[in-house]
Amino acid sequence: MLSCINAYNVTLPNLYIFRGNRFKQNFSAKCGLSIIMVMQPKAWMIAILFDKWISHFIISIQNSGGNRSPTNRHLLILDGHNSHVTLDVVHKAMGVGLNLITLSSHISHALQPLYVIGFKPFKIAFKTYRNVWTLAYKVRDGNKEDLAQWVSLTLMKTLTITNICKGFSSIRILPLNPNAIVGKM
């Protein structure tokens, strides 16, 4: 899953990556209207999927009134996964007024808002949804559609306006504090 938030509580539809070679059914049907689902043989992010996602990101911020230009740029903070740093993605982003920052390994926990506030509560809430479902449906194993629904419900519960604002303020991006990393490493 790829999630994206900003300091003003605008979220993009999550990208769900399922293992497989072709669509047999829409596993994300119970996740809301805006979810994006892709199939990939090993179910992880690869450069071509990230390139598609960045195109979707650019369209989404244009549709949400994101006024980007060479003089009014946006910033996207990425973890250091190698699928994010292709030349095509960088050219596409720079061409529309989008600056990319790729964090070095082992600092996402201190500088990326989703890591700071989102993923720990997400993991706890996800396990709760999974456990409740398991108790209710002991006769069958969960499937990809169930998994996608648990993720969607968990995100709605954990990525609240309050939590998102705490994430950005705790790493001092909004309001900006250039000395915020001191003591977090």
Strand and helix map with partners:
Elements: E1 15-19, E2 36-40, H1 47-63, E3 74-78, H2 87-95, E4 98-102, H3 108-111, H4 113-136, H5 144-158, H6 161-170
Parallel strand pairs: 1-2, 3-4
Helix pairs in contact: 1-2, 4-5, 4-6
Walkthrough of the structure:
- The model has no long low-confidence stretch (mean pLDDT about 80).
- It is globular, with a radius of gyration of 17 Å.
- The chain starts with 14 loop residues before the first strand and ends in a 15-residue tail after the last helix.
- With about 180 residues, it is α/β, with parallel strands linked by helices.
- Helices cover about 45% and strands about 10% of the residues.
- Strand 3, helix 2 and strand 4 form a beta-alpha-beta unit.
- The strands form two sheets. Strands 1-2 form a two-stranded parallel sheet. The protein has a two-stranded parallel ribbon with strand order 3-4.
Give me a quick take on this structure.
This protein has 185 residues and is α/β, with parallel strands linked by helices. It has helices at 47-63, 87-95, 108-111, 113-136, 144-158, 161-170, and strands at residues 15-19, 36-40, 74-78, 98-102.
